[in-house]
Amino acid sequence: MKIAMIGTGYVGLVTGVCFAEFGHEVTCIDTDAAKIARLQKGEIPIYEPGLDAMVLKNIQAGRLLFSTDYAPGVPEAKVVFIAVGTPASRRGDGYADLSYVYEAARQIAPHFKDYTVVVNKSTVPVGTARQVARVISETNPTASFDVASNPEFLREGAAIRDFMHPDRVVLGVDSERAEEVLKTIYRPLYLIEVPFVITNIETAELTKYAANAFLAAKISFINEVANLCEEIGADVQDVARGIGLDGRIGKKFLHAGPGYGGSCFPKDTQALLRIAQEHGVACRIVEAVVEVNAAQKARMVRKIRQAVGGNEAGKTIAVLGLSFKPETDDIRDAPSLTILSTLTEHGAAIRAHDPQAMEEMEKVLPGVKYCTNPYEACQGADCVVLLTEWNEYRALDLLRIRSALKEPVFVDLRNVYRPNAMRQLGFEYFSVGRAAMRKGQ
Q1: Prediction pTM value
Q2: Which residue ranges make up each domain of the chain?
Q3: Which residues pair with 384 in a beta bridge?
Q4: Active-site residue 264, yes or no?
Q5: How far apart are CA 126 and CA 432, in angstroms?
Q6: What is the CATH number of domain 2-199?
Q7: Closest alpha carbon to 166 in 187, 178, 156, 152
Q8: Which of 28, 229, 264, 383 is flagged as catalytic?
Q9: In CATH, what number does 209-290 get?
Q10: What is the pLDDT of residues 368-409, one digit of tens each?
Q11: CATH of domain 297-430
């Protein structure tokens, strides 16, 4: 089947390439000519493991095209996905900015030739699909189409696997015709018995927000428990294991740390609050989740401040990890942004390393010294902060780290290392939800 993908950002590019891998003919369309030129040469503008090889494979097979033009990709497509960016909030009211979504609808509408299913793939508030249908009808009154909602559940760093072997596929449709078309393009997943949730459009739109808000709630919950553990001498990792083995709770997203970030959780929790307010419904749990997350980042700054003696002014701090999670270069709403900005504003000098995100971080924090490896970052620093748990930070040469540091102070905001082992190596060790370990204790 022929598919058009409007937008070649993270969601659009991964989704388009994976549909091509299924055997569909996919045209990915974007107004950014420079990006399209790079993609046509097989150059990937984002970091996602395995995506570059899959793009080249499907370009060579003739199943994947990139273009700045809507024709012939849209007229020939049976399904057109809208996967453009939805910025965090609209200025003034915090509501999701849907201008790109509506503009995409206006641009594709004149090109419809036969019956077409238009699918919202971008994360959008409840009611957006109805508005997209209105925009298309106003732009092209003779168009034969249905609008559907198909929210994405891709994790950065594992997006290809998540698409090929998802927990579920959610389809929000209003007609049997649209349902059958979408079932056809997702047929390879039916064959491996992936659960499909087929529902109305509003339910599908809300499902994405509800899922992300719930996962964010688990993170904020375990961070609050971690803070309590520090006060009473408990170990949050054992607590998390003790509750996570309960099948009703589950072990995922129960890792204490500096708070959630990225392109989804901060934006989607705020958007869900705006949706609820607009409809006169209180979402107090989600409100608390957002507040706890902001407080957790501030608490991490205080933890680092404590580690360097109570005042970061004039101190040199090594930071390992800048992206909001491993296996991505995404720094959107990453805890590192808040933490590093606060430290530098208070007079600290930062020496940082990240396997993928330094180029992006340098655009927003140019005053930081970016280093080629973790050991260079630690050279002469008053402490080291492990902020993102990249695999290459899980087996550091700790004796080399200690030798490079001016003071043997290690702040582990991801609980990668064991307190007793760090103490035996001579570190003053600080983690999250576990008692601080100083030399001599």
Answers
A1: 0.90
A2: 2-199, 209-290, 297-430
A3: 318, 410
A4: yes
A5: 37
A6: 3.40.50.720
A7: 152
A8: 264
A9: 1.10.1040.10
A10: 999 999 999 999 999 999 999 999 999 999 999 999 999 999
A11: 3.40.50.720
